[in-house]
Amino acid sequence: SLTLLSSTFASKPEVAGAWYTGWHATEGYPPSGVNWDKYNTMYYSFAITTSDVNSISLEGSNDWLLPAFESEAHTHVKAHISIGGWDGGIYFSSNVATAENHTAFVNTVIDFVKQYDLDGVNFEY
């Protein structure tokens, strides 16, 4: 029934998230400057797909900053990675075009999440 559905959805925790782009820190806005109290999730943006299904890149997103972001975020919220973005998802289609590529890409994403101790993934496709 509709009542059952609405009560089911109402009991789910809401996600209050925002995207922190890798270039923020070089523009004077380090992770320590985020008003974390407004959020329960933060997405580091962006990792990008590559032509190699076994590789995700942080090119253009200050790869040195992701560990600092993760550390600061985890003292306040869930830390996720956002993969894709404006032109960072150009290889999504080829990365999942075959069953073999799909499996390899999923494993690559899982390895990336584990490497940086992240809580989840947002795909900007």
Description:
With 125 residues, this protein is of the alpha/beta class. The protein is 31% helix and 22% strand. Strands 1, 2, 3, 4 and 5 form a 5-stranded mixed beta sheet that branches.
Features:
single chain; globular; 4 helices; 31% helix; 125 residues; 5 strands; alpha/beta; disordered N terminus; 5-stranded mixed sheet
Summarize the main sheet.
Answer: 5 strands, mixed
Q: Give the count of helical stretches.
A: 4
Rg from Cα: 16 Å
Categorize the overall geometry: globular
Distance between the termini: 34 Å
Determine the structural class based on helices, strands and strand pairing. alpha/beta
User: Helix and strand string, N-terminal first?
Assistant: HEEEHEHHE
How much helix, percentage-wise, in residues?
Answer: 25-40%
Strand content: 15-25%
In total, the number of strands is: 5
Question: So what's the oligomer here?
Answer: single chain
Stretches where pLDDT is under 50 for at least 5 consecutive residues are 1-9
Give average pLDDT, whole number.
88
Describe the secondary-structure layout:
Blueprint: H1 2-10, E1 17-21, E2 41-49, E3 56-57, H2 66-74, E4 78-84, H3 92-95, H4 99-115, E5 120-124
Parallel strand pairs: 1-2, 2-4, 4-5
Antiparallel strand pairs: 2-3
Brief summary of the model shown:
This protein is an alpha/beta fold. It contains 4 helices and 5 strands, in the order αβββαβααβ.
